[in-house]
Amino acid sequence: MEETLWTKSWGISGGHRNRKSVGKELLKVMENISKAGQEHSILLVGVRGAGKTTIGHALARTLDLPFYDTDRLVEERLGESIPVFWAREGEPAFREVETDIVKMLSGLPKGVISTGGGIVLRKENRSLLSSAGTVFYIRLKPETLIPRLQNSWGSRPRLIKEIPLEAEVKEVFIQRDPLYQEVAHHVIEADGHGIIQVVQIIQRYLVEK
């Protein structure tokens, strides 16, 4: 869902010419990233709408690694979509399944892993994430996130009921930002950066590791 929604926001849609140009830029950084010799999985954390799935797909392609999305892994376990399960069973039941998936991450073949926005809420999850690989926090300010989330507002589970989108985004950011900071090995201030720039920033961290 996020990859399709945020492709435009990250500037990788808009016709064949633009996609071709982005592909060339990704190829330019592939060699240096590959030389980094990354031994462990790369995990991306951040609030919903941060572009983790889009960035993760691009990074996985440059590294020639498999891509995993914890929300998709949860849905495979459930046999239905997260919004449907959430509406019927509630958030606590969803978080239990999510933790089961987090416990599996360290056993997956090395890859790039995009995580759900609320995955850091449990202390157990934060510990497991930190030990599963190198964690990058894709950090965006609420002012950047709000316009991105407006189009998908009705299709995502409400995190705080009966308050406007703007208020929810700001409140969730206040609650979770310290938790992302806690679990992350590196924080990427992504405001004003496109997907290629974020991939290049991650590249530099991996090369310098």
Describe this structure as you would to a colleague.
The protein is built from ten helices and five strands. The chain is an alpha/beta fold and about 210 residues long. It has one domain: P-loop containing nucleotide triphosphate hydrolases (Rossmann fold). It has a five-stranded parallel beta sheet with strand order 2-3-1-4-5, with helices on both faces. Helix 3 (about 50-65) crosses helix 10 (about 195-209), helix 4 crosses helix 6 (about 90-105) and helix 5 packs across helix 6 (about 90-105). The protein is globular. The model is unreliable at about 1-25 and about 30-35 (pLDDT under 50). It catalyses: shikimate + ATP = 3-phosphoshikimate + ADP + H(+). One of its GO terms (biological process) is amino acid biosynthetic process.
CATH fold field value: Rossmann fold
CATH class: Alpha Beta
Number of strands: 5
Looking across the biggest beta sheet, what order are the strands in? 2-3-1-4-5
Structural class: alpha/beta
Instruction: Enumerate the spans where pLDDT stays under 50 for 5 or more consecutive residues.
Output: 1-23, 29-37
CATH fourth-tier homologous superfamily: P-loop containing nucleotide triphosphate hydrolases
Summarize the biggest pleated sheet. Answer: 5 strands, parallel
Global Rg? 17 Å
Figure out the total of helices.
10
**Secondary-structure arrangement, i.e. CATH architecture:** 3-Layer(aba) Sandwich
The whole-number mean of residue pLDDT values reads: 82
Global morphology: globular
Cofactor: Mg(2+)
Function: Catalyzes the specific phosphorylation of the 3-hydroxyl group of shikimic acid using ATP as a cosubstrate.
Keywords: Amino-acid biosynthesis, Aromatic amino acid biosynthesis, ATP-binding, Cytoplasm, Kinase, Magnesium, Metal-binding, Nucleotide-binding, Transferase
InterPro entries: P-loop_NTPase, Shikimate/glucono_kinase, Shikimate_kinase/TSH1, Shikimate_kinase_CS
